[in-house]
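Input/output pair, single chain:
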Amino acid sequence: MTDKDNLFYLYQKGEKPKNPDDMSYIMWSDDSVDNFSNYRFAYKQAAEALYEQFINHNGDYRIKDPMGITLTFMYRHYMELTTKFLYLKFNPYISGQRLSDDEIVNFIDKTGHNLNKIWKLLKPILTELSKKLRNSFDIKAFGHYVNEFQQFDESSMKMRYPIDKKGKPFETKSQRLDIKILHDYMYECMNEVDNLVELWDNQIYWDDDKELGRVFLNQYGNAEEKVDQFLDLEVKFAESFKKRNKRKVQKYMSLTNIALEQLPEEIEVEKYLNTLSDNHLLVIHNLFYLGRNDLRKIKMWKKSSDRILQFERCAGAICRSETNKFDTPMNRRDLIDTIMSKEPETVYNYIKECTDMYKNDRFCYFFK
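Output:
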């Protein structure tokens, strides 16, 4: 140990560590929500690793007892990070607007380490979304877990320091805590939270995509007949493609040779795409990606009105990310090649499911 030791050696961009296993990638970003997600995941993983050490030292209470203090703090801090993350993540899903930096800071300042204050703000959000989105997350049980930690360690300091800021001990008598019970319940809780986040993640797009979504829906309204005609041709291509591949594979021909053979139905589809206007072509292209990327998420919403809103937002998000834009010069060859390069049955299914769902929900919404 010297006064020259560099304890926090951070590798510079392009610099390779001698042994990658000696390095930890600290997941920092300029996105506050992502950072909270990364930190809660870090505490979850660290708690699991420490628990493995805990059970590997059975009988050696010199080691196990101190681990109990650290493990309990990890779970408590995980719960604080997770409730804050869920609020930051899902609060905009109600309003459709991202939280500003000032709003995030205000939330952190107002709640501090108090889990009950966080839960008071979070519970209505989870309750509201659970009415609209299909899920099996037990909000009541999760609230109970939050309260249990708040009751056990109100200030989040008991497992960090032995005394408070006035020098008074947090506890004066030793107690025996069943770490296995705590671990097993928390392991289940953490997995349930992960499942919820994965289920709801990116299901809701923002109101700033709605305007582009309305543009897309107007374009789809103009192209609806053309899309249906395309689907009629594509399903014939899909059936022929499937029969051809099955026949050729049975004769042990390579898939490369199969790909080189153009079917009459394939030629018809490509010929039809070449007759479409740029806007109609882009509608079909975007419908494919809407069906592939977002349809499952949209279907998670229970009401037809909510599904229409999310359809609009998802369509807007695709329009925003797509290089080609409506009513502007487009790369037609790129759009056609993208559609033709995909397996025809996949293209048909994604677009057909997408349009069927929208037509049905539109009918239910306007004629209920």
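Residues 207-367 form one domain. The chain is about 70% helix and 0% strand.
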